[in-house]
């Protein structure tokens, strides 16, 4: 029965490109037709259980089958398989592909609501699940200069990942309208790349906060090595606890952290940000988003990658900020920039396969590249995107024209370290 249901599903989905499937009973089927820009992939199931899992929940079932060696890709790779499946049902041109059964979708939504509660103790545990597995993994595939585990910015096609991440930092810093005498808060500072960049290029004082002990230790090392330890400090603290201390900052930046907040905490997040921001302050929120209406976190991502995470729609993000009278002064959709970033990460991970397997095992490696491939397909053909939202509390805090952003961005890309910073 499950084999028949899977055949029907694939026959309906795969129209462009080719998917050859060898089922667990040895029978073979070919779905789709060759088409320009679409890959040809061959897969083999080693168990009927894997076929059943995929019927029940496409993403989780396929992910676990691939991780366990029950779904073997014999021609092409997992990136091409994900692109083939998602590319046949692009979100922006036709009805989106369903992620499994209606029952699975119901449970995804219910679990997303529960995860969205995400109180402080659970938030630290959820962050540790992804970021405290060790810095060794991330040094294998992130950019060497800034260790940015977030969407890069690709204004030119011929850029390296390192150049694109540098361009992203300049793009964000320009929108913040930074000055040397300002205090800056970096919420979810990662390994310190954004904070160190601001201190080196502008000379401002920066506090970076994280819930990851692994990130904290390396961020402090990197700040010391960059010669900015006197202007940048890092703390292991939740943004909610920081807000309770009563400090204020001229600028707030948050890159790739809002995805971990959880739906139920959106209003609290913006309320605390408003309290932390001075009256003339500026905030820049850089987050993965969904281009449609609010949705849910799929079971694979929730179980293996980002427990407690949720990708917000623009509508619910802006609405939550409105509750604290934060003015959305500028909104940019980086539509395909994350797809390019993910492809670079995937390429580097495959090159470093033996090192990753030696650190974490074959099953982890398969999980990781499945995650990167699925995310890439979601940004190329699904509903995922990246938003940069600039907030102000005072409508007069910034120039009337957006021209200052481009001008400042150009200056930052060519600027030397600030004179106050030791070289």
Write the layout of secondary structure elements.
Blueprint: H1 2-13, E1 18-22, E2 28-31, E3 40-45, H2 48-56, H3 58-67, E4 71-75, H4 78-87, H5 102-115, H6 120-131, H7 135-141, H8 161-176, E5 183-187, H9 193-202, E6 205-210, H10 213-226, E7 232-236, H11 239-244, E8 249-255, H12 266-276, E9 277-290, H13 299-305, H14 314-322, E10 327-334, H15 337-351, H16 353-360, H17 362-380, E11 384-392, H18 403-414
Short description:
The protein has 18 helices and 11 strands. It is α/β, with parallel strands linked by helices. The strands form 2 sheets. It has a 7-stranded mixed sheet, with helices on both faces.
Features of the shown structure:
alpha/beta, 7-stranded mixed β-sheet, 2 domains, Rossmann fold, 4-stranded mixed β-sheet, 18 helices, about 425 residues, Nonspecific Lipid-transfer Protein, Chain A
Q: If strands are numbered along the chain, what order do they take across the biggest sheet?
A: 7-6-5-8-9-11-10
How would you name the CATH homologous superfamily of the largest domain? Vaccinia Virus protein VP39
Fraction in beta strands: 15-25%
Rounded to an integer in angstroms, the radius of gyration calculated over CA atoms is 22 Å
SSE string:
HEEEHHEHHHHHEHEHEHEHEHHEHHHEH
Q: Provide the residue-averaged pLDDT.
A: 92
CATH class type of the largest domain: Alpha Beta
- The biggest beta sheet, please? 7 strands, mixed
**Judging by the overall fold, what is the CATH architecture of the largest domain?**
3-Layer(aba) Sandwich
